[in-house]
Write a structure and sequence with these properties.
Elements (H helix, E strand, L loop, with lengths): L10 H4 L18 E3 L9 E5 L1 H6 L4 H4 L2 H8 L10 E3 L2 E4 L2 E5 L5 E9 L2 E8 L14 E2 H17 L5 E14 L8 E12 L5 H9 L3 H15 L8 H25 L1 E2 L21 E2 L24 H20 L3 H25 L9 H12 L6 H8 L10 H5 L11 H18 L6 H9 L9 H12 L4 H9 L35
Antiparallel strand pairs: 1-3, 2-9, 4-5, 6-7, 7-10, 8-10, 9-10, 11-12
Bound molecules: adenosine monophosphate and magnesium ion (MG).
Length: 522
């Protein structure tokens, strides 16, 4: 029985298509996408489906059990009256212009409209496209599990993100050299069906600006405003400026959330920056375990650490500058765009302070807060201190008992034996200042705790947790995927039966590939 998808295709019906329909690698001109059909998988099977996303798309759990659903989300079958396509975009990668990139292994199936919301449905790992360059268009199980679990977990953490509908095996084998060291091996191929209001990226605009194709650039920007930023009004010069301002605001909001929960994206290239301010393209991302501004999980970036935790807000600015350059031909004036970018630099600092204040349970603003926050960040980095456990347990502190700070936060220390006298003194001093600061606040201990717990998650997808799920899944056991998927639906709640996941990274995971070290191989 065919599923009744509520189709409302706009992207491929409104925007210029590549005139060539043959699936060959090429440079595409004056087009926003190329039509392409997903590869027929060898022996597809479903591993997991997100019930929340089914609901969002107007589908039932019964729909998800049909053969038709399996066929659609693995590329075996094209939905009736739809025409799948790969999007054309370019990008700056690791600070350098990389030219045309495009959906090399993502294929958009269709757009669905349900409950006044629009969703683009896309398969990641469903085969070659004109943008596959030298690669195969496929994805492996490990990276697909990571994207599937993390994107849904981020949503439940309140972080703007693309979503995931399903995780499947293609039944085909895929050759990968995980650490790029000459040890290629076959892995299980997988497909994630992912969903977002739109998958447009900064690079989608850069591709036309780089070629001086102002006509297609304008068509795409106007389309974006009409379809995704319609509150801004009919496209005009002032609306283009307002558009830049709004994208800046949304992207800032996203990165502040990343800093709040300790998420490191790992590959903040402009082709991985959503025009809707969504976290997009989950590759070698990671979660901070010990609080370290200099940490990146991405071994491909280990020399310069361009995309380390502490630089993410600044990299957002760098990427916004590329977007501003791309839309400049439509505005024709640098000043208003520069003003937006200058304001970002001021506002992001203020928002980071506000975010840290709320992590500390502070409602009021005090002129010494900046110092309090800076000092905390310093002490947190004196010895390995788990970010998630520290902030979650900090909420247990009692205003009149701050001298007992050690019992409150000691679970967060990775190497308690290394907490020297000097480090203890630094902590004591910080807690003294914090105690004084808390006296300015009117919340009771229990009120403060409940406020803090709304923003300091108890459960995040620690790198080793995803890796455990991957190891089991490689052997055909998917129970842990389901357990983590459900655990991470309520990341701020106490879940007494899952206390084991509120724990520091185990020592075996410290230097393990997949836990602390990830590459772009996926
Ligand atoms: P990423 O940084 O992983 O988002 O990917 C950068 C570019 O490489 C994008 O254009 C991707 O579509 C493309 N890409 C990554 N992996 C593959 C693959 N296995 N096959 C084809 N294209 C890929
Ligand atoms: Mg990408």
């Amino acid at each position: 029985m065919a599923i009744n998808f509520k189709i409302n295709d706009r992207f491929n019906k409104s925007l210029p298509a590549d005139k060539i329909e043959e699936n060959s690698r090429r440079q595409v001109k004056e087009a926003c996408f190329s039509y392409v059909t997903p590869k027929i998988p060898g022996n597809p099977s479903l591993i997991h489906v997100s019930p929340e996303m089914l609901d969002n798309l107007g589908l039932s759990e019964a729909d998800a059990k049909t053969e038709s659903f399996l066929n659609v989300v693995t590329g075996a079958e094209v939905i009736r009256n739809t025409k799948p396509y790969a999007m054309c975009y370019a990008g700056h990668q690791f600070g350098n212009w990389a030219g045309q990139l495009g959906d090399g292994r993502a294929i958009n199936l269709t757009e669905i409209e349900h409950n006044n919301k629009r969703w683009a449905l896309q398969l990641k790992g469903a085969g070659e496209t004109p943008y596959s360059r030298s690669a195969d268009g496929l994805a492996v199980l490990r990276s697909s599990i990571r994207e599937y679990l993390c994107s849904e977990a981020m949503y439940h953490l309140g972080v703007p993100t693309t979503r995931a509908l399903s995780l499947s095996l293609s039944g085909d084998q895929v050759l990968r050299d995980v650490m790029y060291n000459g040890n290629a091996d076959y892995e299980k191929g997988a497909i994630v069906s992912r969903v977002a209001e739109s998958f447009l990226r900064f690079g989608s605009y850069e591709v036309f600006a780089s070629k001086g194709d102002d006509k297609t650039l304008k068509t795409l920007v106007d389309y974006t405003i009409k379809n995704h930023y319609s509150d801004l009004g009919e496209p005009s010069k002032s609306v283009y400026i307002a558009f830049m301002k709004e994208v800046t605001k949304r992207t800032m909001d996203m990165v502040i959330h990343w800093q709040r929960v300790g998420f490191v994206h790992g590959v903040m290239n402009t082709d991985n920056m959503s025009i809707l301010g969504l976290t997009i393209d989950y590759g070698p991302y990671g979660w901070l375990e010990d609080y370290d501004q200099g940490w990146t999980p991405n071994t491909t970036d280990s020399t310069h650490k361009r995309y380390r935790f502490g630089t993410q807000p600044h990299i957002v600015l760098w990427n916004l500058i590329q977007l501003a350059n791309a839309i400049y031909p439509l505005v024709g004036e640098a000043e208003p765009l520069e003003e937006i970018l200058n304001n970002y630099q001021i506002e992001v600092q203020l928002e980071l302070q506000n975010m840290m204040r709320s992590k500390l349970g502070l409602k009021l603003e005090d002129r010494n807060d900046i110092q309090l926050i800076e000092e905390l960040e310093n002490v947190l980095q004196l010895s390995e201190t788990d970010m998630t456990i520290f902030f979650r347990n900090l909420a247990n502190l009692e205003k009149d008992n701050t001298h007992e700070w050690q019992s409150v936060i000691e679970k967060a220390f990775y190497k308690p034996e290394e907490i020297s006298k000097t480090i203890k003194e630094c902590w004591s001093a910080w807690f003294k200042t914090y105690e004084e600061r808390l006296k300015l606040e009117s919340l009771s201990d229990s009120e403060r705790k409940s406020e803090m717990n709304k923003g300091n998650p108890k459960y995040v997808l620690r790198n080793y947790m995803a890796q455990l799920a991957i190891d089991d899944a490689d052997k055909g056991d998917y129970k842990l995927i389901d357990e983590l998927f459900n655990l991470l639906k309520k990341p701020y709640d106490e879940q007494p039966n899952s206390e084991k996941w509120f724990a520091k990274r185990p020592e075996w995971a410290r230097h393990k590939v997949g836990c602390s070290m990830l590459s772009c191989s996926s």
